[in-house]
Amino acid sequence: MKTTLILLLAAAAGAAGHAATYQFDPLHTNVTFEIDHVISTNRGRFDRKEGVVEFDPQARTGSVSLTLDMSSISTSAPPFTRSLQSRDFFNVEQFPTARFVGDNFVFDGDRVVEVNGNLTMVGRTHPVKLKAIRFACVHNAMLQREVCGGDFEATVNRSAWGIDWGLPRFPDSVRLLLQVEAIRQ
Known about the structure:
By secondary structure, the chain is mainly β. It has an 8-stranded antiparallel β-barrel. It has one domain (18-184): Lipid/polyisoprenoid-binding, YceI-like (Lipocalin). The chain is 12% helix and 57% strand.
């Protein structure tokens, strides 16, 4: 009986395809943003983030969860950083994290071209489409494990999350850029 159960479980696992869990590598994952500022571009980043990806390339399915520590926002100008952390923008004291949860991977053949999900920040949730600029899974010789990752981008309107300080003087649209590498667990 015990042997039969083990064989059934092994067969079920093999039938499930090549689904795997990947943990974001914080040393090779970056989340940045860009917003126009009169005659130039302001840029910033989130220094603390964590996430996990469930990915099955054979079934062409996946899910991703990315959490940002909003107090880790950083720009090249400390007064701007403090302003972004204030109630005028991300209200970090009341909303210490932001989270993207995507459950729809879009493929073109074998290639991931988009991840659709919801971004929750400042107490509001709205859909976001992350366009895959590039995406691949490779064997990492140093780690002796598979690593999947790529570059993703989206443009969102900050006013959808109630971040409307400075409108219309400063633009509503913000470009999000994600560089992700995730290690198979």
